[in-house]
Amino acid sequence: MIVNKPNKKKKGSTYTVFYVIMAVIFSVIIGKLLYLQVYKHQDYKEKADTGSTRFISEKAPRGIIYDSDGNVLATNKQNYVLTYMQTDEADKAFYSSMSKIFNILKENNEKFLDDLLLKINSSGKFYYNFKTSDTEAQKLVELRFKKDRGLNDLVQNTLYKDHKGDFTDEQLNAINDALLSISIDDTFYYLVDNYNLYEMLLPEGYTSAEKKALANSFVDTTIDQTSKNRDYVKESVEYGKRVTEELLKEYSLEEIRNYMVVKDAIKMQSYEGYKAVTIANNIKRDTAFIIYQKLSDLPGVDVSLEPVRYYPFGNLASHILGYVSSITGSEETVYELMGYDSSTDLVGASGIEAAFEDQLKGNKGGTTVKVNSQGRETETLFQLESYPGNNVHLTIDKDVQYAAQEALKDTLERIRQTQPSATRGAVIAIEVKTGRVLAMASYPDYDPNDFAIAGELSDEKYEQYFSPDLTKFGTEHIKKTNATKSLDELFPLNEDGLREDFYDIYPRPMFNYATLGKIPPGSVFKPLTSIAGLMEGVITTTESMNDTSGWWERDGFGAENFQHKVNGPTDLRLALQKSSNYFYYETGYRLWDKNGRDVEALDSLAKYVWKFGLGVDPNSPQASNPSTGIEIEEGFGQTYNFTSWKNKIIDTPMYSLVESLQKGVSSSGQYIFIPLDISKNEDDSEELKNAKEAIKNKIKEILQKVGTDEQMNDYTEVANLMAPEIKTFMKVSDKYKQSVTDYEAKTGKKVDSDEQVDSVSNAIAEYIISEQTTQITSFAQIVMDAIGQGMNNLTPLQLANYVATLANGGERHKVMLVDKITSPTGEIIQEFKPEVVDNLEIPSEYLQAVKEGMRRVNTSSENGMAYQCFGEGNFPIAVCGKTGTADFGTQEQYDEQGRKPYGNYISFAPMDDPQIAIFSTLYDGNKGSDGAPIHKAIYEAYFKDELLKLNPSYASNSESFVKYVQNAPKDNTSEAEGNATAE
């Protein structure tokens, strides 16, 4: 029997399948390896090289700034810098490394670099460290800060998630408004989220799974990830808030922020590629060595040397030199286009540092290197040497500058014993024959070294310079000065709840009062009026005017002498000596009278004043960009002239008209009508706003014709022009309609609308012709201009140049602060020569008479400090001078604000051959002669050799010579060849 046996499987069949599968797998692996190592070899090699390649930037020293004798006013010194460079290993050890670094810095009393705009005050409250008090500028900086850190994207996704293409202006404004609405606290929480600060809670040696789990533990699982109405900003803020709450269990708020500062610096630097970020600047040598010894435990951390700006004489000439500062958010784009690194570079922020930034900045260098996993250099790939900037040589003399600055400070300190509000001032000395500035001081001043190292400006200095406590200051000011206005009236709160210096009372250290402040000149203007009167022939050098009452009056306009003094017979010389208002009122009147008594005659004084640089003809080409020629930022004031005065009147709010219309009666009482309100009101409808604006614009349009052939003097004609605008207003104003209804209900009389339009139009015509036109064309302004009052508002620099021009016989020079620019090796690149910009050619007879009168000012015992400084026997060199007490308001205004008039003083010397001219102003000084000691100190510094030659024992008889000349800081010309070594 045949039995079928089961088939036996072949022994190797099971393994055959396995071998095939393995062969396939290994073939794939080998193929992938071949793909990666052969085909994609170059791509991955480049990626690996890029990941291990870093650029180490080398800052270039800025050029040196010298005085006229070669003294170094601004230079550079070597500075130890602590940096951090990103690598994978460094990032994993980031919090451990930073913790060690923070401890070392704290133990050695060092500061780490803190450029983060968002800061914490001593009360634990957040605030933005804006380096400006301008609210609009603050908004721009805040916007740039938030946009650079990604909040812009979250806002856009929240508001316009599905938007494609460019945003409209309206949408962009909505985005900006949303960004500004994010509170400072929420911004902090967002940054906690954005910089993954939850990682601070991870243990050392954490795994990626632990990191992911911790990150997810703070996520709000209730959020619908698919919703189209998600608020991405809110989600991020809430996430950051939860992380912060957990962090605060182990860290202080300040410690959390410290890590945030470094993370922020890394983020901002990342836009520039793989580059090191600075953790601390200007650390001590010992601290640098401590860190250097521990570098093996601090991956990514390194210590290096780099130049930092240094001002050897501190505050000396600070407003001339200026300072350097980090690039602000609003300036980033502009500077980046010019090749700057906005995250690390410092630029000139004011003064010469800013004006000559393109010359002073050097050419940066750097090295491209390969680094290992700890960020240490393993190979140099490319090196570019840095090159210093060019040098700027100034016209100022260090010793004269010191005398000016210290004497100004001491004089104000002395005056404050009786005038507590005398906290500000300025003085400028100019070389008569060249226009070169020898000294220029503004008080209060500052130390530019405070800004030389980014992030090292103390909170106290920041508050003093940029964000003063006006509540504290205002309270003290009112108490010291007995000001009658309240704190809220003097320093009102703006819409943001911040106090504003409405009346410009706070002394601002960063403001250059010498070039930017505008003040009335007062009686220091009288020598110029003398020249104009003499050259026009309306007065002579010998004519005497008989002042019998101290009161001058012509054609219905009158004014009095200072302090009601009666001077009797007064010629030109005595008029200057006594500062006779009477004499100069008459001179101003005669100038107008002689030249036709019309609107052109109103400029008969101004045309001479402009020759001295005190304003410009508003109808001339120079009016578009008026300047003294100085290289740094300046303001430019104007003297009285018909055009400027007319524009000022037209642009002044129509308070008297508004009040008259609200009362329902014209200023003369001739026209009575139902009251109407044309004052500005943000709650008005657009239609009503336009109607009010149309009335005001029509008035301005009519007033613009004053002084032209089209001037309107007919009341009926003007009233007819105004009528259509009044009708429109009455139709759209609900408030006016209600007033009409109330009137009719009260009187039982029907209001005739045409009669109302006629009465109001005539009231406005009366305002235009009787008040405004009369004020615009009145000769009263040229009379007040003649004594330096009225609309005269000029900078101290303009006034100093006027004095130099007068002393130089009418030849005016362009004002100069810079002599030349040289290369780092000393070659002259550019040289600046004196430049004559105008010449009046004053006859010597006239000039001599004015000089004699000004000489008498200083030799008259009634002129207080001027006499004590320059009277006969008090100073060996003949000095011409003129005092000026310049009013900016009424006595009532002084009492309300707790202020006093300006104390102005001009002088030049020697009398017969003037070399130097000076102007000084003491805000709230009250007496011009109090500035004389400042002038004396400047003359002593300038003429020191001549004074000692005239009198070898001069120093022993002059306290100011010892204090301001002999005690001046020593020269440092030997430092001109190089920079200081690292400290």
From TrEMBL:
Coiled coil segments of this chain: 678-705
Q: Does the keyword Transmembrane helix apply?
A: yes
How is the protein disposed in the membrane? Single-pass membrane protein
What residues does the Penicillin-binding protein dimerisation domain cover? 58-132, 191-380
Annotated Penicillin-binding protein transpeptidase domain residues: 425-629, 786-939
Asked whether the UniProt record includes Transmembrane among its keywords, one would answer yes
Supply one GO BP term. Answer: cell wall organization
Give the location in the cell: Cell membrane; Membrane
Q: Which Gene3D superfamilies does the UniProt record give?
A: DD-peptidase/beta-lactamase superfamily, Penicillin-binding protein 2a (Domain 2)
According to its record, what are the GO cellular component terms? Answer: plasma membrane
Cite the InterPro entries for this sequence: Beta-lactam/transpept, Beta-lactam/transpept-like, PBP_dimer, PBP_dimer_sf, PCN-bd_Tpept
Pfam families recorded = PBP_dimer, Transpeptidase
Q: Where are the transmembrane segments?
A: 12-35
| Keyword annotations from UniProtKB, A to Z | Cell membrane, Cell shape, Cell wall biogenesis/degradation, Coiled coil, Membrane, Peptidoglycan synthesis, Transmembrane, Transmembrane helix
GO MF: penicillin binding; peptidoglycan L,D-transpeptidase activity
Give the family this protein belongs to, as stated in its UniProt record: Belongs to the transpeptidase family.
Q: What is this protein called?
A: Penicillin-binding Protein dimerisation domain family
Instruction: Give the originating organism.
Output: Clostridium disporicum
Q: Which gene encodes it?
A: penA_1
